[in-house]
Amino acid sequence: MNDNKKQLRIALRNCGFINPEIIDDYISRDGYMALGKCLTEHTPEETIKEIKDSGLRGRGGGGFPTGLKWEITRKSESDQKYVVCNADEGDPGAFMDRSILEGDPHSVIEAMAICGYCIGADKGLVYIRAEYPLAIERLQIALSQAREYGLLGENIFRSGFNFDIEIRFGAGAFVCGEETALIHSMEGLRGEPTFKPPFPSVSGYLGKPTNVNNVETFANIPAILNKGAAWFSSIGTEKSKGTKVFALAGKINNVGLIEVPMGTTLREVIYEIGGGIRDGKKFKSVQTGGPSGGCLTTDFLDTPIDYDNLIDAGSMMGSGGMIVMDEDDCMVAIAKFYLEFTLEESCGKCSPCRIGNKRLHEILDKITSGRGEFQDIERLQLLSQVIKDTSLCGLGQTSPNPVLSTIANFEDEYLAHVNEGKCPAGQCKALLKYEIIEDLCTGCTLCFRNCPVGAISGERRQPHYIDQSLCIKCGVCYEKCKFNAITLS
Amino acid sequence: MDTVQLTIDNKPIVVKKGTTILEAAKGIGIHIPTLCHMKLDDLNIENKPGGCRICIVEVQGRRNLAPACCTEVSDGMVVNSHSIRVVNARQTVMELILSDHPSDCLICPKSGNCDLQSLAHQLGIREIHYKGEQSTYREDTSPAIIRDIDKCIMCRRCEMMCNEVQTVGVLSAINRGFNAVVSPAFEMNLDHSVCTYCGQCVAVCPTGALTEVNHTSKVIRALSDPSKTVIVQTAPAVRAALGEEFGYEAGTLVTGKLVSALRRLGFDYVFDTDFAADLTIMEEGTELLNRLSKYLEGDKDVKLPILTSCCPAWVKFFEHQFPQMKEIPSTARSPQQMFGSIAKSYFAEKMNIKREDLVVVSIMPCVAKKYECGRDEFKVNGNPDVDYAVTTRELASLIKLANIEFTKLPDENFDNPLGESTGAGVIFGTTGGVIEAAVRTAYELYTKKSLPRLDFDELRGMEGIRHATIDFNGFPLNIGIAHGLGNARKLLEKIEAGESEFHAIEIMSCPGGCIGGGGQPYHHGNAEILKKRQMAIYREDKNKTLRKSHENPYIIKLYEEYLGKPMSEKAHSLLHTEYFDRT
Ligand SMILES: Cc1cc2nc3c(=O)[nH]c(=O)nc-3n(C[C@H](O)[C@H](O)[C@H](O)COP(=O)(O)O)c2cc1C
Ligand code: SF4
Ligand code: SF4
Ligand code: SF4
Ligand code: SF4
Ligand code: SF4
Asked: For domain B3-107, which architecture applies?
């Protein structure tokens, strides 16, 4: 990734600059300084105030003010509390959290200890998907080094504060990233969400107050405490402070992880950092917020990225997925693609998400395979609204976003599918039609010989003909024809 | 007490802090529909997964609709339970549920008693706008329960019952997304699992996904076979609940009409399981006294506490879960099986009927009894002591099938010799009843004194675990009672740890005992019904002239003519059993 001046590294400050397996590397870049200062010079209340003043909001998707969450957990009375780091990272294509844990595990460990000190917990748990072996290994090495250095364990910095961290492995279900599901999964129960309240801050792991934060949220903490809340809050927009890491992907020249100040526009990200659309194609849409984010059009390119602006635009921040689409992408097919994911990943507990998403997917499938009707568009919208309105957890409450945003922003594409039986992007195979232009066909028989289903007929040196009822739209004839005699419509 | 002020549907209301919107609304006559939610008051049983999303309401200022069952009220809250947004969402959610449900109502065993069906009606669903694929699963038939989980709506009530209340842990949600369903692990068959057939999952399932194995047609076939003598026994809890199927108020005793209906159905003799319950007390009470006197003589090996053994689901439970303790329960067979055994020996001989020509049908509040009568140890040369066990519900359908107008029936009496019973036999139908019956007899046999009072209020009630100490001539007899297998487990763990002070413990699998059995008319989550049935049972006991098992003249005669004494060799072979390690 180009290190462009538009980027600013806070969460990723050490990634790539230190050897993550050597604790001294981390320490030499002010590592564990924040923890030391907190434990020896500041009360938990002072530290929480600093986090609150910084304006840091959760990077796991919800954007809940981190300092406030810590304060609530601190105020929940209990003999035992827990700090949980959410490293489930189930969004397809996202690898922000993995990169932080692989490149700078100590920043998360340090932050969890600080959090433990602030809320009054002596035990931390990192819930990480088992598919992240390198991150797990690095984390394990970092944990044992931290223990060796006395930065975890008993009486840290001789302050009387004890804290240690355990790793818990997730089976990789997307919904297990939802905090209540994550907690149930750690408790050995089925990983499915439960109604909030009670929030984990009040009743979480084993019924005890539990502070759940995302990896990236934690990675910001030591930097904030070292450089001060004022510094952090000077970066970003009015309600979203600091930076955000995005996994830039799709039809863009430079893909990869980027970290930009909140308030950077989508245009800056896509054209200046991302280097614009691949192969000189036209930009069509950018999808933010992971599988249940929305698809935004050119109209939103100059929107400064922050939590609230993205929601107003019909999308969301999510954990930081950003996928760019060009003119070749069919927005109906894109919506269907995302639905396929949420459909698989729904826990199945509540009716609207379990059955509603299935029905949305079926309607989208009907449209992309050329059987759509005009009313289907309205049906999609009505059903989407009910699913959002009635689902139990964030997954169902957001899963129809790709449908709603693509209808809102690309209704003409839907209309083309249902009214004219056409896919403007040429992606929906069932709507394609391969035809032979008689005047250009030389009767070379190449297409005839290559068609896998024998849909093409014709005499040698005579124009050939495609039987549409047999054609499976594989496109082999189109590729093989040397005379451009086959068209696609 | 902290209170909260809010308005629901424009009605201001003040309720206790911590109340849910659902409860608050109920208090002012607003019935918010629910599907997955179920609460049995006083039994500490609640299912509240917040999953069906039928009870959603609009709370002013909130982005999403809120589930009334899970959302606690807060000060100044403004709730609308039937705004157009709510009604549309509620109907759509219902349509979604129905879109993944077979439209089998006309031929479904649950039709007429189905919560899903009545809710669809209540919500005025006339069309399903979102049709699509429906989930299909293999049907699973066991000796007692049929799982037709194409009809499962994921309400999780059965799962809660099986895990939290019964701690058996057979049923749980499996798979994700559209394929999620409640099932034994790995979609194993129920009869390969540790299921006890307590039927509590059946009792709470709002749909036809879980039902009992139906034996009514077998009964009809037997009744119409002229070569067979068909006799019937009916369990105590049946008479306190059957009336509900015919529009009677819960808790109405219909004993006389029950007898007359059975006679009209064509049974040759209409007998009473209560008779066998008296017999059970004779055997179990004697066993208790035997163990007790050994204990008092200083025998260290004697197994105490003695545990009752009349509930087949409980028997299967300890055979799976606590096989190391299988020597502790009484060896006495359950009343159903004692009846069958006596019917096919004593009665058959008396009447000169060949065993093969005698068919014993039992009417039970229970689905586990279907499994019990199929156990090998209760067969002679492959011929079972009890041929068919049908539930209270199945009996109701038989009565309807035979065009019998139940409410117009005269009251009739049971036949003899196996139809006479005491109040002690009647109270077997409720939690605490077996042990109270046993105490009435054991006390008099032990102290040789007549009981000053017969109602042991200290043993009655609905609390999950109860205990009382009865003065046996200066010896304090410590008695424990548990209903619901989770409560039983707690007592067993105590016994295992050597911390139990009890000498005798009654255990019933179903919350409330057999009045709450898995084969009873559906309570639809209304615990009042169970309490009314319980009161009816105690009423029937009070109305009896004889209230102690050992005073039943036909029991006395049975011992004189046939069995000798309780625990005699003959009694042993006919009335006792053994238990197996099923791990
Ligand atoms: C379906 C779903 C999946 C989620 N997955 C993740 C995840 O992978 N990682 C994460 O940190 N938060 C995830 N969250 C958000 C968590 O529930 C929770 O809000 C977050 O971990 C809190 O941390 P934060 O305040 O630091 O963002 C998910 C939420 C939902 C509804
Ligand atoms: S919204 Fe979906 S993922 Fe969330 S609880 Fe309901 S079924 Fe499960
Ligand atoms: S379960 Fe209920 S709704 Fe379903 S078919 Fe049976 S009666 Fe009808
Ligand atoms: S019958 Fe009882 S033990 Fe068996 S699955 Fe149902 S609730 Fe569980
Ligand atoms: S089987 Fe019945 S009780 Fe169990 S979850 Fe399904 S519908 Fe509910
Ligand atoms: S308590 Fe009664 S109804 Fe329930 S399983 Fe036992 S015997 Fe059957």
From this structure: Roll (3.10)
